[in-house]
Amino acid sequence: MNANESGVKQISNRYSTPAQQASMKVMAAIFIPVGVMFSMWLPAAIQFYFACLSIPGVLQTWILFRPAVRKRLGLSPLPDPKTLAAASPASKNPFKNFKQSIQDAQKGFTERRAVKSQASAAERRVHDEAALQEKYWETLRDRMAEQERMKKMNKRP
Fold first, then answer.
1. Hey, what's the torsion of the CAs at 129, 130, 135, 137, to 10 degrees?
2. For the segment 131-145, what is each residue's pLDDT rounded down to a tens digit?
3. Considering just the CA atoms, what is the radius of gyration of the chain in Å?
């Protein structure tokens, strides 16, 4: 008997794609025991604080997933869960999607680094060109000042 047959409905899970649902199962299997293990030694007041923070979040999700509330607030309607399931086939291996996400992130990082290095190379060229122009104008001013001094020396009796 699954959660929906037992009368317990998962609020947001029905609007997730099958790949997301598989990933959420893996994350729940890992993070729930780890969270319980770490929070067992925390004071009761902190546990109460976590509960007080979680309840409004669950209520907010429950309220905002209601079609009438969404319509009244001007929010777009949620997609049909059946179309989500058809659009995204379930992955047999939830770690495959995770691995693909990591590879996509690495690819994006590499591309950003390449763009950044190109930009810094262009900035260096602009800086070097500006320094070269400044040196040119400084040399030109020095030569003109030298010519003026020579003219003044030649005009003296």
1. 110
2. 899 999 999 999 999
3. 34
